[in-house]
């Protein structure tokens, strides 16, 4: 039985995982951590990771970027593997993730769904051919009105996949409101829409002369992220220190 600490257990994703893990015969929640205590869970909940005195095989984190430093310190100190799903980390925090991975197993992924992780592979194959044929690349993401970070971590990861396959040729443009010039061919435009309860939509648009190819991904339920995170946690439990991602799992 894989024992899991849910970091951010009372949020939207934390509660999705709580439900999924109740039905899972191979994994269980050993403890939760969340500042919000208004939910009665059937596991102990601590207000911060430093106050958590329960040992586990792995932490799954869907919380807040502000919580990342404390969580990484805890995982390094206790040598607990961690599945990091929170988005919006700063450059300094991303560097800290790399440092932490020297001491414990860290799997970081902006999107735990099978569809987005497969799309990243497809983009690596398609983008160089389409770019050579002069197609412009734009990414549009849409999320619910409670989301804190923009653009989404997934939109950035999709852009990074294209860029990696193109020897880093692209730069990212998030706002054209001040521009008085045409787009250049080496930019990836990234636009964010926020509204209602949209779970997570991502469109990668390749716009060429007289033809457009759009890769679309629609998440209709947070279950797709939750299932991926549990699969990742089972994979990561007991793994040596190092940096892992969803391509190691799927
Ligand atoms: N990788 C992926 O596949 C996915 C990633 N995400 C990312 O996961 C994160 C959480 O998303 P979501 O569940 O929708 O957000 P929510 O705001 O619904 O939940 C986050 C929870 O974390 C709690 N929290 C805040 N600070 C801490 C802390 N220091 N320690 C422990 N818990 C804390 C919040 O409590 P309080 O309300 O009191 O602040 C809240 O209950 C976001 O960054 C989101 O982008 C989301 C979906 C999929
Ligand atoms: O905040 C969310 O909800 C989501 N965040 C992730 C992101 O920023 O990419 C993944 C998913 O799209 C949902």
Low-confidence stretches: none
Number of strands: 12
The CATH level-2 architecture of the largest domain is identified as 3-Layer(aba) Sandwich
- At the fourth level of CATH, the homologous superfamily of the largest domain is NAD(P)-binding Rossmann-like Domain
Structural notes for this entry:
With 250 residues, this protein is α/β, with parallel strands linked by helices. It has two domains: 2-108 and 223-249, NAD(P)-binding Rossmann-like Domain (Rossmann fold); 114-219, 2-Layer Sandwich (Dihydrodipicolinate Reductase, domain 2), CATH 3.30.360. Helix content is 32%, strand content 26%. The chain is built from seven helices and twelve strands. It has helices spanning 12-22, 68-78, 91-100, 114-132, 153-164, 223-236, 246-249, and strands at 2-7, 27-33, 45-46, 58-61, 82-84, 105-108, 136-143, 171-173, 187-194, 200-207, 212-219, 242-244. A seven-stranded parallel sheet has the order 3-2-1-4-5-6-12, sandwiched between helices. Strand 5 (82-84), helix 3 (91-100) and strand 6 (105-108) form a beta-alpha-beta unit. Helix 1 (12-22) packs across helix 6 (223-236), helix 2 (68-78) runs parallel beside helix 3 (91-100) and helix 4 (114-132) crosses helix 5. The structure holds NADPH dihydro-nicotinamide-adenine-dinucleotide phosphate and the ligand O=C(O)C1=N[C@H](C(=O)O)C[C@H](O)C1. Residues 87, 110-111, 143, 147, 152-154, 200 line the site of ligand LZUJQKHR. NADPH dihydro-nicotinamide-adenine-dinucleotide phosphate is lined by residues 7-8, 10-14, 33-36, 48, 62-64, 67, 85-88, 109-112, 225. Residues 115-250 form the Dihydrodipicolinate reductase C-terminal domain.
């Amino acid at each position: 039985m894989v024992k899991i600490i849910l970091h951010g257990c009372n949020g939207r994703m934390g509660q999705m995982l709580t439900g999924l893990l109740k039905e899972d015969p191979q994994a269980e929640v050993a403890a939760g951590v969340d500042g919000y205590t208004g939910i009665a869970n059937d596991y102990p909940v601590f207000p911060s990771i430093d106050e958590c005195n329960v040992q586990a095989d792995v932490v799954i984190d869907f919380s807040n970027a502000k919580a990342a430093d404390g969580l990484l310190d805890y995982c390094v100190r206790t040598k607990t593997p961690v599945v990091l799903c929170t988005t919006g980390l700063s450059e300094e925090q991303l560097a800290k993730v790399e440092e932490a991975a020297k001491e414990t197993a860290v799997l970081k992924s902006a999107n735990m769904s099978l569809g987005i992780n497969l799309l990243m592979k497809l983009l690596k194959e398609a983008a160089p051919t389409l770019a050579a044929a002069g197609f412009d690349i734009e990414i549009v993401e849409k999320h619910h009105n409670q989301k804190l970070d923009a653009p989404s971590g997934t939109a950035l990861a999709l852009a990074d996949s294209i860029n990696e396959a193109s020897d880093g040729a692209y730069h990212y443009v998030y706002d054209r409101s001040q521009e008085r010039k045409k787009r250049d061919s080496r930019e990836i435009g990234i636009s964010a829409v926020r509204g209602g309860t949209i779970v997570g939509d991502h469109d990668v648009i390749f716009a060429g002369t007289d033809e457009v190819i759009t890769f679309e991904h629609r998440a209709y339920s947070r279950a797709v992220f939750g299932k991926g995170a549990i699969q990742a946690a089972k994979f990561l439990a007991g793994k040596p220190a190092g940096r892992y991602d969803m391509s190691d799992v799927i």
